[in-house]
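QA checklist item 7 of 12: single-chain prediction sanity check.
[x] sequence parsed
[x] length recorded as 288
[x] structure emitted
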Amino acid sequence: MAEPVQSESWPSFVAGSAGGVADMLLCHPILTFKVRSQAHMMGEGGRYRPRATLAEFLSLYQGLTPAVSRGALAGALSLGTNQYFKALFSASDHEPLSMNFLAAATASGILESIVYSPIELATIQMQMGLHNSATQCAKDLYRSHGLRGLYMGFTPFLTSNIFGNLVFFVSYGWLQRQFGGTRDGLTVPGVAGTTVAAGTAGALSYLAGQPADTVQAVMMAQRRPREQFPSARACVQEMLAREGWRGLFRGLTPNLMAAVPGISISMVVFEAVLPVVTRLSNDSEAPT
């Protein structure tokens, strides 16, 4: 069993990484705007109102380096580990509501969160102008609060990833079958079908994870752990007191603006790169 799982999954890690990089290069400015609009809501400055200047536009690229690293890791982990766990749990793409399929999506969400939560934290801290580099951010937080400092906002981040993964993989698999034909017994939706399926599934997954995503962004935008909010629960209570339930959906519009094109291009790249990497892997393993 071990060999088939490994051979099926590692090309997905490579293809997922390529898709994640493409996603971040396209959508990082929109995500920076989203984070600032979410975090400014809980600060003294109120709503985030960007100025129409070149300097303000260029500032939207702050944190691009850790964001690209996060994108590569996120794509590799999300798609690669999902493929691995599907093989491990014998989950079928034709049964997206089966316990095995749902378990694979949940397990990949948990692993993603553990691995790149510190990168997400560094990205948000740089987007908010709190640190000039990811290294400086990691050193400062670790020096002052140890390992716990690197996982500030982890609980809502984990929640957002699990809900997002469940909704995305279930809906993407179903939409692929609606838009695609078959080749060699596999669903092949083509570029247009992949774009529509991924964009729609991405929008649905972001809707499902948006409240937790907002709490995560606010907590990760603190200069120090527990500086303003000692827990995710305290953050939610404060947000509800200030703006009601709509506060939990702050940043939804820029999130969707980033999700639809970002996830679409990520999955198009993934679906294009995966057969190439798989073919190269098979050729290298073939006896000479």
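[x] summary fact logged: The chain has ten helices and two strands.
[ ] second reviewer sign-off
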